[in-house]
Amino acid sequence: MTNRIKTNSIDNTNTINNNSKEKIDLSIVIPIYNERESVDRLYKELDKSLLKLGIDYEVIFIDDGSVDGTYNKLLEIHKKNSSYKIIRFRRNFGQTAAISAGFNYSKGDAIITLDADLQNDPQDIPVMLNKLNEGYDIVSGWRKNRKDKAITRRFPSVIANKIISKLTGVYLHDYGCTLKAYKREVVKNIELYGEMHRYIPAVASWMGVKVAEIPVTHHSRKFGKSKYGISRTIRVILDIITIKFLLSYSQRPIQIFGLVGLFSGTVGFIITAYLIIMRIFFNQGLADRPLFILSIFMIFIGIQLITMGLLAEITMRIYHEAQEKPTYVIKDIIS
Ligand code: UDP
Ligand code: MG
Questions:
Q1: Looking at the structure, do residues 260 and 245 belong to the same domain, yes or no?
Q2: Is residue 178 in some structural domain?
Q3: Cβ–ligand 1 contact at 63 (below 6 Å)
Q4: How far does the centroid of ligand 2 lie from the alpha carbon of residue 246, in Å?
Q5: Ligand nearest to the CA of 97
Q6: Assuming Cys at both sites, which of 13, 98, 152, 321 could form a disulfide with 31, CB separation 3.0 to 4.6 Å?
Q7: What is the pLDDT of residue 11?
Q8: Is the CB of 92 under 6 A from ligand 1?
Q9: CATH number of residue 139's parent domain
């Protein structure tokens, strides 16, 4: 087995922690999946842009189960320059998982994520960094002049960005842009699931972050093809629901389940009462009345939802208490 990259520890939960305590200024995290043709140029462009900065940096490639020889290309780079590190996944786990692994392994005070396909431009890195140094916690790239297909990619994206901005109160034009810069505290305080990497600014808003958005260069894909199509829109919608729920109700799930449940149950109860009165005092039959079935349904759904809310309350407590996860994030303590 080739195991050239020393991961300092892989704990039993399978997260990678780069335990060597020395901190550096900047980590660049790049998920990469079957992008063989792009690797050499990416390296050249990164090198050019990073050397100019004159700071300590590392570049972490997360090879997300590539089968086209990307890994060998990456190894060549690592041999030339050990600031370029590789995490190799056993199979394709997806871009979010790749970014998450990169975050866990990174040592930088600032962390910048970037696509490997040369659609993002490494020349934007210094600009992002400057903005971060102005005191922002997250700087998000905005592909103002986006070079992707209009109908399947750009149009759904405009709508999704509007909705997610409205729902979360973090107004961005382009959640989907991978080119983003983060302060270390932000990255260390959130966990990524599903397709969530694009929503980090929204997810992180619960801990009170200052977010800036700056226009970045976007190129059309020169090599290989996009790993996503229109089908992602559906996943994006489901993620939006999850994020809204997590942001607004994850600490008090009964408030949402209970509310809907109470409403449904109460309406069901009122209808039933009405039907009983009609039956007893006005001698109307119940058997052929759809309203009767509806009322029973509503009462059942009400009970179900309230019970679900209570279960969610228990789950939430277990989540926080078992892992000793606080329900707050501290900025400073003066004592
Ligand atoms: N990617 C990945 N794992 C995946 C899909 C994509 O690591 O399962 C990487 C891919 O190599 C690229 C980045 O994520 O560096 C963005 O992917 P892509 O360019 O296909 O997305 P698009 O730019 O079309 O949104
Ligand atoms: Mg791309």
A1: no
A2: yes
A3: no
A4: 28
A5: 1
A6: 98
A7: 44
A8: yes
A9: 3.90.550.10
**Ligand 1, pocket-test mutation among 29, 59, 115, 143, most atoms within 8 A of CB:** 115
Answer yes or no: is the C-beta of 117 below 6 A from any ligand 1 atom.
yes
Other CB atoms within a 10 A radius of the CB of residue 293 amount to 10
Clarify whether residues 197 and 288 are in a common domain: no
Backbone φ and ψ of 227, nearest 5°: -90, 0
What is the phi/psi pair of residue 84, to 5°?
A: -95, 115
Give the range of the structural domain holding residue 311, as residue numbers without chain letter.
Answer: 254-322
Give CA–CA dist 328/97, Å, rounded: 25
Residue 240 sits in the same domain as residue 100:
yes
Query: CB atoms < 10 A from the CB of 7, how many?
Result: 14
Taking the centre of ligand 1 as the mean of its atom positions, its distance from the CA of residue 265, in whole angstroms, is 46
CA distance 175 to 207: 18
Pocket-testing residue among 87, 103, 117, ligand 1, by greatest number of atoms within 8 A of Cβ: 117
58 and 187 share one domain: yes
Q: How far is ligand 2, taken at its centre, from the CA of residue 166, in Å?
A: 26
Residues 188 and 278 in one domain: no
* Cα distance between residue 206 and residue 191, in whole Å: 13
Do 152 and 219 lie in a common domain? yes
Any ligand 1 atom below 6 A from CB of 98: yes
Q: Indicate which ligand has the atom closest to the C-alpha of 65.
A: 1
- The verdict on the CB of residue 114 being under 6 Å from ligand 1 is no
Instruction: Give the pLDDT confidence of 1-35 residue by residue, as tens digits.
Output: 444 444 444 444 456 666 666 889 999 999 999 99
Contact 78, 5 (CB under 8 A): yes
Establish how many alpha carbons lie within 13 A of residue 16's alpha carbon, considering only the half-sphere containing its beta carbon. Answer: 22
Residue-wise pLDDT for 163-187, tens only, equals 999 988 999 999 999 999 999 999 9
Co-location of 57 and 117 in the same domain: yes
Mean pLDDT of the chain: 90
Q: Is residue 192 located within the same domain as residue 223?
A: yes
Secondary structure (3-state) at 239? helix
The answer as to whether 169 is a domain residue is yes
What pLDDT score was predicted for residue 20? 62
Cβ–Cβ under 8 Å, residues 61 and 116:
yes
